[in-house]
Amino acid sequence: MAGPHGRNTIDAVATALGCSTRHLHREMISAIGIGPKTVVRITRIRRAVALLGIGDATLAGIAIDAGYADQAHMTREFSQLGMPSPARLRRWRESDFVKTTTPARL
User: Fold this and answer.
1) Domain definitions of the chain by residue range
2) Cα separation of 42 and 56, whole Å?
3) In the chain, N or C terminus with fewer CB closer than 10 Å?
4) Domain at 4-101, CATH from 1.10.10.60, 2.30.42.10, 1.10.630.10, 3.40.50.720
5) Model confidence, pTM
6) Contact (CB, 8 A) for 77 and 45
7) pLDDT tens across 43-62, in order?
């Protein structure tokens, strides 16, 4: 459901599937229990969390790459979902705590 920078609209997805946005919403609720906007929101936040764990991009750059309008939009979204701020997540990922408690990958 996400295009470049996560910016496909629900209208564009519905059109590509040959249905109305209302029909797409009903079908998604029926099939998976959540609507397309929620799927887009989850996809964006998962992308942002993944990007926080790699490289040293700025939070503003990560926000844009994950599909948010700006860093403040991303931070509000994290807060609305009861998550730690992106800056705090990044610090945790970079801390010794995460490095010593995360199982080694083979």
Assistant:
1) 4-101
2) 23
3) C
4) 1.10.10.60
5) 0.73
6) yes
7) 999 999 999 988 789 999 99
Three-state secondary structure readout of the chain:
CCCHHHCCCHHHHHHHHCCCHHHHHHHHHHHHCCCHHHHHHHHHHHHHHHHHCCCCCCHHHHHHHHCCCCHHHHHHHHHHCCCCCHHHHHHHHHCHHHHHHCCCCC
63 closest CA partner among 2, 6, 1, 21:
6
Per cent of the chain over pLDDT 70 is 82
Amino acid of residue 101: T
Contact 24, 17 (CB under 8 A): yes
Cα–Cα distance measured from residue 19 to residue 73, given in angstroms and rounded to the nearest whole number: 30
